[in-house]
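Session log. Operator J.P. requested a structure for one protein chain; no other inputs attached. Running the standard single-chain path with token output.
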Amino acid sequence: AFSEGWANAYSGLASGRNAYIDTSGSKQSGGFEVSLEQEISPDEGGVKGWYSEDSVQYFIYDLFDQSDDDELELPLSVMMIALLDLMPQRASPTSLFSFTEGVIAARPSDKSKIMALINKQNINRGLSDLDAFGSGETNSAAQYTDLDDLDSVILPVFSKIGSNLVSSDICHDVSNPGAQTSFGFGNRLGAFRFAKFEIVQAGSYRVRLITTEKPAEAVADPDFAIFSSGGLIGPQEGLLTAEADLESHILELSKGQYWAWVQDYNNNELTEESGRYCHRLEVLSQ
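Structure written below.
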């Protein structure tokens, strides 16, 4: 959502057009145009939330568009400070949350206006602060699906693992054929979940992801990856195993902050074994 929405907004800002234009076909004779000023309505398929490409493009365009009728007109230097100087220091993935945290840090005098714009996109509603992990976010996208118990597979955006470095159940869900509608597989909302934790003593750690819940008759194949502010710590994608109910790797972790994605491989594409999975992430000192 962030990479697509940011690129849409930036194309309009860079070209001086208040629209995102996508061309296709022979000699680029086809394509479509989306206004960056007039938001797509819900009746037209518009989606609002931290998971929405629509919200990202409108929010970023509103921040930096130099239109006379905008309440906020930030210089592009603020965007560059957020993207190049502030976001890479954080042990968090690139997202609308980490970007907005960086923008506020670069322009604290405009914090209330920035927060008003992001609240308008149904993000961090009712909150006066925002951080890179979406702490306190309450928008689970429930208005876009009939999946039961949606909060448990969407929120919190990041599960915080305590000082014992053992998480509570982290669950995710995609549609099983014939089941209720969720958001799909692959990189869709709910197919991956995220966690964060802190290492207070550097050393070797065995990191394990253990399946605690799975669809009936399914053979679980949990996967994870651990990141610091410097990027991927491990495991590399090619080292992920197909062991049932467990993914386990020894990683060298320095003192500091980390984040992780967790998933079950069965939710990479829609099969009879897709559905609701829960896992426990453990970071055990060797």
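Operator note: DSSP finds six helices and eleven strands in the chain.
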